Amino acid sequence: MPETTFGTQRSTSSGQAPACFHCGQPCSEQDILLEGRHFCCMGCKTVYELLSSREMCAYYDLSQGAPGISPSHGESAIKYGYLDDPGVIEKIVDFHDGSILRATFSIPTMHCASCIYLLENLHELRQGIRSARVNFLHKELTVTWDQQQLPLRELVALLASIGYEPHLSLEAIREGGEKKTQRSLIMRVGVAGFAFGNIMLLSFPEYLASGAEVDGLLQLLFRYLNFALALPVLLYSAQPYWSSAFKGLRARTVNLDVPITIGIAALFLRSAYEVIAGVGPGYFDSLAGLLFLLLIGRIFQEKTYAAFSFERDYSSYFPLAATLLEASGLEKSVPVSSLKPGARIVVRNQELIPADAVLINGDGRIDYGFVTGESEPVLRRSGDLIHAGGRQVGSAIELEVMEEVSRSHLVRLWNQDAFTRDRESRYTILANRISRYFTAAVLLIATAAFLLHLPSGMGKAVWVLTAVLIVACPCALALATPFTLGTAMRLLGRFGFYLKKAEVVENLAAIRAIAFDKTGTLTVAGSGHAQWEGEGLGELERALIRSIVRHSTHPLSLKIFASLEGGTAFTVDRVEEVSGYGLLGEVAGHVVRVGSAAWVGADEEHPVAFHPADGSLSVAWVAVDGHVLGRYRVANLIRPGLDKVIEDLSHEYELTLISGDTDRDKPILAPLFGEQNLHFRQGPHEKLQFIEEREQRGEHLLMIGDGLNDAGALRAASVGVAVTEDVTSFSPACDGLLAAESLKRLRNILHFSRHSVAVIKVSFAISFAYNLVGLSFAVAGKLSPLISAVLMPVSSITVVAVATGLTTLAARKSLGGRQEIEG
User: Fold this and answer.
1) How far is CA 311 from CA 91, 107, 486, 521, in A?
2) Of 209, 223, 418, 605, which is most buried by a Cβ count within 10 Å?
């Protein structure tokens, strides 16, 4: 007996293989059964589960036969078979470690918020996909997946099946894919323009007749010539719209191209009817002109987005330095942009590998958590290739650079979500929600307008229907937030504030309280020389200390290392760095500890010569084989102008100081913060707990630290900012890096963030106003499809220009420095 479900009949009669409930293809003998329904493969079952979980199974009521299409495995193997080749995979992927791969694909057909929504939810369509993130302005999709569950070939086939076939970037393809797409678009514009001009020419007798008789044979000839000229416009020039709409519907989404194609189809069918029935010339001139202007608008949009794009060359926003090992054996800090293949670099504990390199000396324990999301270190031995973006956990290692930083994928990782918390912009979420329902609303309005004008004639009704479908556009809504926040991110970078993600600007605007670390934040870390107090150090002790501090990036360790520069160094057998406490290592058969008094077993109350006028003081104790030798003292001067910064901020924000040091600096800091807001002797765990408690109470807290002992607190705060002297360190836990000299601009930065959010609201208002006004004129029959085709891209370009321009003006007002703003 036939089984009827959701209004669709599927044959299950004996002797026949059951049909797949989703795609209608015959199931194999090992078909998959779920809730009494048969599925031919896991893909169809997953799609059904996705629809069912979102209560969208009414989709099957509207479908006839096979509503879904199951991609042919045979066709996939033939078309994309070359993607099984290891050499090809190596060239396409950005990162691979075991079964986890990450690649960035160019997706030229991506063009609206619906595309973003579908592509970023790929993990719900297929098992094995861990994450998918879209770079809308560059039309790129970055996917992380498990190749054991999903080979590269099947991933590409999946993208193609839902309408987003990537231009596979084997380096040359990455450079040429956009150009190829641009050439194709220009050719379609050329065909539409040629047809538009000739149809207009052939329509002159109709235009100029003015009631006079036109030779019937010529009139018929001209009308059919116009019909013939309109066919390539319909089938070739409009192909991107047809393809996008069809594939979107096949993937169960109604994207922006659906109403556009309905308008094109209505205009063509009405025109074809009039010509064939001999009742009129149709609207072929309007159809060709509509496509010509739509495609011209698309080109203009892409060029405008590129001109306003906030993406820059990596060297202008990637504030990393590397430790270069010179031939003489000396170590030198250099910008990552200067690293060339063949250079030897030293990577210490918790430092990132800045470029693809080969391990030369040391044992690598590489944490690829930024790439894969799994923080379990991977062991690497001498001779192994290590990808940029990995973080060394343990003793320092030496590597030889294989690729320039600009050719590695570390730059791309800087802005990836793996570095940050999953805090998507509220305005982006709002725009995506509106866009999801926008198309349905437009279709309802267009239908109502069609019925309203139908008594005036079918031609008029089709004219109004087309105008309504074309003029409405949510693209401007989707572009307002990324362009505003992206422009703000770019401008802040010119003032020494480097953000990992544009959405941090929005989070800064909501800040109501600020917590400061002390050492390296309010004080100039290591501004004095490291002075030794204690037993006399022999050559052996000096070599042991030098060997162990070489593996740390803490400012005190660097200062101590500099004071011992040029001495002997041993190979470290084992090293451990505990945040907030110190270093522990085995060197030449000796156990060496460097850090706090409690860490090395020293008397914490040991007197320290200290005068408030000298500023703050940092101390690092040293013990070898359990015997405390003494300590290094480094005076840290309070930053110039700090009192003015704190005073200005205190009028608008609740300020707190939370430090791991003792309260010996209380006389200096109490006048700035007030004694009740000073918290000393706070270890990493206490700092984290303090921030979490404040966040749980709904306070939006900005944590400013040095990025070393404050990693947990920086990550827990609404916004975590690491202050650095020369912008050469990189703290994965923070949301941004602030150059120390820019700390004086903190209040201005926060004001600028609020202005940027106000710009987003203005851009939203412009977008809403455009759609309301445009739809009002179109519904009233006072807007032609041709004018609608012009207004559609103009709205997006206007919002982009307004967002960028107003954000730049806000930067001049809040941050000053016109020369820096204008680059």
Assistant:
1) 24, 17, 8, 29
2) 223
Q: Which residue has the higher pLDDT, 814 or 752?
A: 752
Looking up tokens 């979107």, which residue turns up? Answer: 248
How many CB atoms lie under 10 A from the CB of residue 448?
13
CA 638 to CA 616: how far, in whole Å?
Answer: 7
Global pTM reads 0.59
Structure tokens at 591: 């156990």
Find all residues with CB under 8 Å of 771, minimum gap 6, and list them.
472, 473, 474, 795
Q: What is the per-residue burial (b if ≥16 Cβ within 10 Å, else e) of 207-238?
A: eeeeeeeeeeeebeebbebbbebbebbbeebb
Give yes or no for residue 408 having a pLDDT over 90: no
Closest CA to 138 of 108, 175, 179, 95: 108
Tokens at 655, concatenated: 């300020």
- Whether the pLDDT of residue 566 is over 70: the answer is no
DSSP symbols for 213-237: ---HHHHHHHHHHHHHHHHHIIIII
Could you identify the residue written with the tokens 């009039």? 274
Residues 160-204: pLDDT tens digits?
A: 777 677 876 444 334 444 455 567 888 999 999 999 899 988 887
Question: Which tens digits make up the pLDDT trace of 771-819?
Answer: 899 899 999 988 887 788 777 777 777 888 888 889 989 988 888 755 5
The correct answer on CATH 3.30.390.10 for the domain covering 73-170 is: no
Second CATH level (architecture) for the domain 317-414: Distorted Sandwich (2.70)
- What are the extents of the domains in the chain? 3-61, 73-170, 317-414, 531-636
Q: What is the CATH number of domain 531-636?
A: 3.40.1110.10
Question: Which amino acid, 20?
Answer: C
Identify the sign of the CA torsion 228, 232, 238, 242: positive
